[in-house]
């Protein structure tokens, strides 16, 4: 009998929710949120890293940490129903077909003052990774379409 479980390593995604739900291996980078909210000193924060270093994934994590979760009519959900809260605080999350997954608390959960800010803000997220063009005008139009 094989006692070793084949671990699923979910790669190539910028979707924080899918990474936690679909994968069995996860490197907790949630203290990025602390650095972003508490330790940064400038009015503008510029995040530069080479390609494939997780910039979009970190931004998606930050968005899910800050954003108000709503139902299909736009009404804010109570915290106990928020999937995003469970991503950070831990808990059982409902999946498809009646299955569930138990999530462990992330490191950011050790900072109550920051966790009080979780799920409290309207967030607008605009991605430019698919903006392309052969001229300034094409790129300008693609940016306008994103906005």
What would you note in describing this structure?
The chain is mostly helical. It has helices at 16-22, 31-39, 55-66, 83-89, 112-115, 136-146; strands at residues 91-94, 100-103. The radius of gyration is 18 Å and the shape is globular.
Mean pLDDT: 88
Tally of separate helices: 6
> Order of strands side by side in the largest beta sheet?
1-2
Q: Count the E strands.
A: 2
The portion of residues forming beta strands comes to 5-15%
End-to-end separation: 55 Å
**Helix content percent band:** 25-40%
Structure in a nutshell:
The chain has 147 residues and is mainly alpha-helical. It has helices spanning 16-22, 31-39, 55-66, 83-89, 112-115, 136-146; strands at residues 91-94, 100-103. Strand 1 (91-94) and strand 2 form a beta hairpin.
Descriptive key words:
5% strand, mainly alpha, globular, 147 residues, 2 strands, 34% helix
Outline the fold blueprint.
Blueprint: H1 16-22, H2 31-39, H3 55-66, H4 83-89, E1 91-94, E2 100-103, H5 112-115, H6 136-146
